[in-house]
């Protein structure tokens, strides 16, 4: 039976980061992933993920985001790869809506550089956008996006360079905490042992974590790329592209929240946009990846409320999975019954920007059973998970 100090189940965004952090600390790491490296079957694909610090989801996240930003720079240096593009970010809402008020609270609490803009000021600065007349926005200069596929590949490469043995196309069938305080992991190719285990299963949380993972729901989400309609008197390509258009999040008049990105792939590209939560639970092994015409029409109708000239064709649409907890906060900690097992899940919708710091947190927990980083919000036994 092969052995290691730590086995990591799931080598996507968080598991890959954990494997990297653990390997760099000198531990022998064995990892398993059911799919191929940087695959498109889970939650970490589609070319871009937003990074930001003025966090409307809660002021508690900001210290971790500051640490994550340091981690992004470190990973870029280690992998010799460009992962981060800073574009600025605009978070638009009704004056009392959480998208705006939550971002403003975080910015003020942590003295983050920001500007508050009226609807007219948003349009003046970012001509492609036409928010509702009464809307307000918080602009954060230090926001932007990261490349998820390159990030996962970078973590895998650096982890491997530090001795990690990573198996792809090898799904884990089961794991067991052993009497001696170690773990045993069974795949279709064999049985493996280790002193400690990290489970970062993403959308497969219920299958691999039993009752601990039961609160996590895998939601089917769709990302869309629409091309603007260009003509005389309308915004031009540059108004939609990196360098002029920031990443954005918007919710006004009770509409569903949307998020999106500037054109990042040249003049033939499109604005990427999606709904933040579509509330469509799915089986990750049987997700419907066909995007239907009514879904496209619904998304384009919503997009036109913010970008009135986004009238060109749909360039592509891709599905992804959001593994989310009931309160939309992450789940990170030692397994309540097996202290040699570290759990990291529930990152759907807003987790990717935390990849470097989550890798460090998980490495702390797996190597010494605790972390000095603030993770109380992510307790595996908090009331929201026990209802």
From TrEMBL:
InterPro entries: FAD-dep_OxRdtase (IPR006076), FAD/NAD-bd_sf (IPR036188), MTOX (IPR045170). NCBIfam families: PRK11259.1. Keywords: FAD, Flavoprotein, Oxidoreductase. The keyword Oxidoreductase applies. Its cofactor is FAD. One of its GO terms (molecular function) is flavin adenine dinucleotide binding. Residues 5-365 form the FAD dependent oxidoreductase domain. It comes from the Bacteria. This is N-methyl-L-tryptophan oxidase.
């Amino acid at each position: 039976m092969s052995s290691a100090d730590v086995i990591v189940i799931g080598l996507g965004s968080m598991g890959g980061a954990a494997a990297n952090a653990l390997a760099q600390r000198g531990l022998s790491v064995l990892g398993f992933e059911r799919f191929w490296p940087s695959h498109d079957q889970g939650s970490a694909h589609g070319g871009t993920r937003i990074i930001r610090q003025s966090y409307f989801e809660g002021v508690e996240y900001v210290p971790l985001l500051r640490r994550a930003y340091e981690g992004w720079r470190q990973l870029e240096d280690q992998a010799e790869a460009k992962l981060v593009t800073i574009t600025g970010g605009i978070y638009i809402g009704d004056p009392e809506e959480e998208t705006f008020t939550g971002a403003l609270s975080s910015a003020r609490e942590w003295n983050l550089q920001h500007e508050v803009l009226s609807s007219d000021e948003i349009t003046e600065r970012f001509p492609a956008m036409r928010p509702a007349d009464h809307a307000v926005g918080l602009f954060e200069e230090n926001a932007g996006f990261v490349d998820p596929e390159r990030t996962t590949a970078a973590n895998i490469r650096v982890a491997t360079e530090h001795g990690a043995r990573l198996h792809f196309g090898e799904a884990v069938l089961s794991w067991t905490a052993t009497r001696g305080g170690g773990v045993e992991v069974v795949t279709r190719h064999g049985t493996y042992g280790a002193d400690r285990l990290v489970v970062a299963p993403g959308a497969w949380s219920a299958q691999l974590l039993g009752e601990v993972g039961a609160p996590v729901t895998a939601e089917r989400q769709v990302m869309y790329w629409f091309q603007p309609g260009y003509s005389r008197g309308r915004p031009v390509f540059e108004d939609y592209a990196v360098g002029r258009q920031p990443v954005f999040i918007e919710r006004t008049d009770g509409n569903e929240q949307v998020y999106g990105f500037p054109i990042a792939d040249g003049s033939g590209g499109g604005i990427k946009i999606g709904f933040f939560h579509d509330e469509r639970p799915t089986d990750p092994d049987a997700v419907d990846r066909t995007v239907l015409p009514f879904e496209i029409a619904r998304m384009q109708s919503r997009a036109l409320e913010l970008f009135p000239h986004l009238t060109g064709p749909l360039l592509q649409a891709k599905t992804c999975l959001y593994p989310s907890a009931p309160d939309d906060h992450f789940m990170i900690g030692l397994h309540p019954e097996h202290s040699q097992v570290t759990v990291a899940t529930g990152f759907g919708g807003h987790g990717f920007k935390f990849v470097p710091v989550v890798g460090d947190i998980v490495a702390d927990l797996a190597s010494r059973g605790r972390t000095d980083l603030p993770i109380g919000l992510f307790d595996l036994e908090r009331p929201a998970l026990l209802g």
